[in-house]
């Protein structure tokens, strides 16, 4: 398939230009005129972003408020930063501030405390008590269906580039999933005789809710999503999560993400940028 066909007039492919707010006049006026004059199609839409600041200040080498992507990737998981930006990005032309304290708090609360913690609370029981095999039925099929149905809105928010709203919807679901585990208390059930099947069903429920959340976050967190697929011993997709994983063997759970510490943030600030 010739990729040049995407640039031809009349193609039904959606073409979106993402630009910074300081070059709107060029990309919204001159560049489209040049494309049209050269016989190429115009963009379907233009999405404009604001500036990226560091702790409320403009990026500056001399002030030490400049972090390269390579330096960041050497110290922290790149998916954390992708999530942080997504949680702030919308359709408005607003600047995004990479605030270190807010970044650390949001990643630790949302990704570690809500998302990853959901899996870690359930996976241990499945491995230790049931040889890694999920139950043949869910504990609450209606709750699972509600999570699946939420995918329509989440997909729509992705398509409309309202990433911040999308992340809020996903984290609201994560809250509901953790509330479910809090109510069922599998760590207490596991100590009671005759409750083995219920423990397996509850933890299977939790892991299936986690799988749905993982797919919803996959456009933003591809690296962690690959590790999640390895844990589930399958390839999760937007279509596959419409049916729960039941009577299925999962692999031993490995930590997906560590809490960000003050020391981690200090390492980000130690970068030496050549003049």
Describe this structure in words.
This protein has 275 residues and is mainly alpha-helical. It has two domains: 3-99, HUPs (Rossmann fold); 114-242, Isoleucyl-tRNA Synthetase, Domain 1, CATH 1.10.730.10. Helix content is 53%, strand content 7%. The chain has helices at residues 24-37, 69-75, 78-86, 100-130, 141-149, 151-159, 163-184, 186-189, 196-217, 222-232, 262-268; strands at 16-20, 45-49, 52-54, 57-58, 96-98. A three-stranded mixed beta sheet has the order 4-3-5. A two-stranded parallel ribbon has the order 1-2. α4 packs across α7 and α4 (100-130) packs antiparallel against α9 (196-217). The mean pLDDT is 92.
Summarize the structure.
This protein has 275 residues and is mainly alpha-helical.
Write the layout of secondary structure elements.
Blueprint lengths: L15 E5 L3 H14 L7 E5 L2 E3 L2 E2 L10 H7 L2 H9 L9 E3 L1 H31 L10 H9 L1 H9 L3 H22 L1 H4 L6 H22 L4 H11 L29 H7 L7
Parallel strand pairs: 1-2, 3-5
Antiparallel strand pairs: 3-4
Helix pairs in contact: 3-4, 4-7, 4-9, 5-9, 6-7, 7-9, 9-10
